[in-house]
């Protein structure tokens, strides 16, 4: 008699050329990830050759019951680390049957910005530092923390080793390898300042691919924590008080910034970000005001500050960038629950396309 694990690990290539495609999309809350699978006649490596599909949007908060059909449009393909073989994960975005993007589809407007000739010419690179917190199931309390209590103060946990300081490494390493297998451009991992909190980095990725890769990395993490019986939280401040929140620091550069004289371009870009600080904050994740307090390695949400090597700033410039006169900067304001399509395109739009209207004082 076969065991469940035997059936899960069946190699379909022994008996069929068909593959399984897991279609993934962002649900109605803007953070919930949904997916469903379909059989395809054979391997596909070009999303434009994949069939569109549909789902019941009334069950995901993306349509009404009397007009519930939402169309899934494949946009990016990744290898499936769960089914392996020729099977694939497909990142999709969502449209009404009329062809219009639905309100929760943030990818479509981001793609419009990234397809602008001025933006394409600048080849915007992103490196996103996704922080998250692992929680004990049913009680929603950080992994490794005593039930109803608190561990010792922050200090020993950042990049730490040892059973009394590091919680959830098996999940984190499984996610790391699964992302590499999938083809996500994951750059690394580390334990964070608060125990039970971790970070992975995606990038450098160009344009819209940064959003595709981060969403798929989140999806893979959700699937792995599901298997492990642990909950992953992207709340920007999962534990009140003197505990670090969770962000999604976004490192950014353009071709001009990476070229000789780029430091001056960086400074002008930061001036633009400062001028639109409130607009960016509004797009950088819900509940971020609980994290951006001016404490625990953050700048106050109402204040824009930038500096070299300053981790308490809104925007940080690295020492190497200052020394070499070119490079990148880090926007430290986005919360861990931000939409990467929104954040990456917003930064590009502000720094490349937007020009202050001096007559209006903007």
Automatic annotation (TrEMBL):
Stretches assigned to the GS catalytic domain? 106-362
Q: Which SUPFAM superfamilies match?
A: Glutamine synthetase, N-terminal domain, Glutamine synthetase/guanido kinase
A Pfam family that this protein carries is Gln-synt_C
Q: Which residues form the GS beta-grasp domain?
A: 19-99
List, alphabetically, the GO terms of the cellular component aspect. Answer: cytoplasm
Q: Name one GO biological process term.
A: glutamine biosynthetic process
Q: Name one GO molecular function term.
A: ATP binding
Q: Its Enzyme Commission number?
A: 6.3.1.2
Keywords in UniProt for this one?
ATP-binding, Ligase, Nucleotide-binding
Stored Gene3D superfamilies = Glutamine synthetase, N-terminal domain, Glutamine synthetase/guanido kinase, catalytic domain
Question: What residue intervals traverse the membrane?
Answer: none
Q: Which reaction does it catalyse?
A: L-glutamate + NH4(+) + ATP = L-glutamine + ADP + phosphate + H(+)
User: Which SMART domains does this entry report, sorted A to Z?
Assistant: Gln-synt_C (SM01230)
Query: Which InterPro entries does the record cross-reference, listed alphabetically?
Result: Gln_synt_N, Gln_synt_N_sf, Gln_synth/guanido_kin_cat_dom, Gln_synth_cat_dom, Gln_synth_gly_rich_site, Gln_synth_N_conserv_site, Glutamine_Synthetase
Q: Tell me the domain of life.
A: Eukaryota
Write down the PANTHER family for this protein, in alphabetical order: GLUTAMINE SYNTHETASE, GLUTAMINE SYNTHETASE CYTOSOLIC ISOZYME 1-3
What the record says about family reads: Belongs to the glutamine synthetase family.
Quaternary state and partners of this protein?
Homooctamer.
Identify this protein by name. Answer: Glutamine synthetase
């Amino acid at each position: 008699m076969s065991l469940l694990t035997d059936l899960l690990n069946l190699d379909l290539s022994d008996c069929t050329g068909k593959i399984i495609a897991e279609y993934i999309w962002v649900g109605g809350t803007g953070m919930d990830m949904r997916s469903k699978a379909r059989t395809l006649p054979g391997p596909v490596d070009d999303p434009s050759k994949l069939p569109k599909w549909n789902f019941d949007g009334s069950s995901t908060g993306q349509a009404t019951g009397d007009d519930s059909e939402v169309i899934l449009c494949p946009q990016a393909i990744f290898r499936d680390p769960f089914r392996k073989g020729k099977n694939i994960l497909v990142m999709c975005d969502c449209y009404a049957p009329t062809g219009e993007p639905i309100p929760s589809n943030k990818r479509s407007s981001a793609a419009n910005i990234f397809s602008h000739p001025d933006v394409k010419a600048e080849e915007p690179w992103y490196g996103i530092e996704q922080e998250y917190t692992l929680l004990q199931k049913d009680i929603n309390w950080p992994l490794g923390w005593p039930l109803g209590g608190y561990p010792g103060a922050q200090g020993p946990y950042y990049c730490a080793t040892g059973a009394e300081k590091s919680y959830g490494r098996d999940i984190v390493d499984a996610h790391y390898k699964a992302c590499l297998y999938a083809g996500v451009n994951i750059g690394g991992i580390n334990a964070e300042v608060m125990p039970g909190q971790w970070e992975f980095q995606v990038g450098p990725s160009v344009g819209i691919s940064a959003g595709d890769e981060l969403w798929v990395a989140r999806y893979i993490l959700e699937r792995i924590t599901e298997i492990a019986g642990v909950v992953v939280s992207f709340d920007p401040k999962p534990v009140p008080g003197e505990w670090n929140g969770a962000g999604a620091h976004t490192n950014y550069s353009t071709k001009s910034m990476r070229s000789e004289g780029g430091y001056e371009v960086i400074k002008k870009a930061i001036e633009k970000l400062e001028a639109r600080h409130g607009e960016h904050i509004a797009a950088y994740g819900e509940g971020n005001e609980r994290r951006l307090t001016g404490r625990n390695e953050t700048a106050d949400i109402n204040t824009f500050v930038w500096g070299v090597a300053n981790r308490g700033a809104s925007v940080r410039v690295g020492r190497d960038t200052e020394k070499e006169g070119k490079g990148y900067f880090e926007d430290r304001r986005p919360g861990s629950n931000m939409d990467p399509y929104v954040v990456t395109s917003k930064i590009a739009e502000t720094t490349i396309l937007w020009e202050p209207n001096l007559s209006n004082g903007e």
